[in-house]
Amino acid sequence: MPTQAHFSLPKSLSQAEGDASSIVYGQIKAITIRHPDYVLAMEGIRECIRDSAYSEESRGCMVVGEGGMGKTRLAKQLIKDLDDTPTRIKRRCEIKLRHAFYVSIDGKLSAEALEESMLRELHDANPAGGSPQSKMARILEQFDQCETYVALIDEVHQMAHKKRLSAPIEGVLKKITESKTVVCLMAAEGGLELFRNDPQMARRFPKFTLHPFTPGIPKDPGLLQGFLLGMRNEIIKRTPIRDMPDFEVYTNVLRMYVGAGGNIAFTTTLLADAAKRAVREGRECFTLQDLAAVWSVDNFDSVRLRSCSENPFTADERTLGRAIRRL
After folding, report:
1. pTM score, two decimals?
2. Conformation bin of residue 92: beta by default, left when phi > 0, alpha when psi is -120 to 50
3. Are 254 and 4 contacting, i.e. CB atoms less than 8 angstroms apart?
4. 219-255 confidence digits (pLDDT tens)
5. Using CA atoms, how far apart are residues 31 and 39, in angstroms rounded to an integer?
6. pLDDT at residue number 307
7. Which sign, positive or negative, has the C-alpha torsion 216, 222, 224, 226?
8. Domains of the chain
9. Which residues on adjacent β-strands are paired with residue 94?
10. Continuous segment of H or E residues that includes residue 95
């Protein structure tokens, strides 16, 4: 991990304690725990790539999950895993290989705007130039030259019109799949409407869902406890933090669930902010009190359980139990 910022900070922000706490925050936010849904989606995309190598037309797929459940992180990890050969000599030219291509949609796009967005990511000299046919031809040429196996298109739910993709956008996706490049659509849960309203989408793009974690019950804990135990191990291994709340204790799992709703990004942010607070104060451990403090000032309203009006890290077990039972 980096030990200093990649840019100059004002002196008021570059104090040693501030730097150390920010480094710890970054280290924790960079941790990836490969939970079952993540592994299933990753293996599903890889299987589509393998199958497409032996088919006339590539297989597509779709990864669905609410914001903060790890869709973008999964895409970045896949890019990192696949792009292991940086360059290749072709026709006496050095070609930068790009086995996995990623583009994130910003707002509702037309098919032509989607093509231009993809060309910008491919560093085309004039993304807006030429006819739609010319733009698509350049995209496919880039994919061929760079040996692109999979095109990851994020935030695809923003392209939906009347709860389905327009015919021109479906045409763009079809041309890519015909070129043997796997199309992996990535969408928030609203993207499920694309399947409910278009049976052909369900056939062409089998879906993998990244579900929010649940706490289960004491005798049979859900995925949240495993995730928290994994995070605890990695935090102690990678950072100066030597101790933190014990997530073998089921009540502590419930506190995290009530506070962050099983959302990966918010759960990780809670842990990172609590660790940052401890390091800033010169401590090598953080406690439930630290989690209570950061929860009360950070914006967790969008994910916390509405059934609990109290701070989950100071509430008693009876209050936590009532909050869970009201779900």
Report:
1. 0.82
2. left
3. no
4. 888 899 999 999 999 999 999 999 999 999 999 999 9
5. 15
6. 66
7. positive
8. 15-33+213-325 (no CATH), 36-209 (3.40.50.300)
9. 89
10. strand 93-96
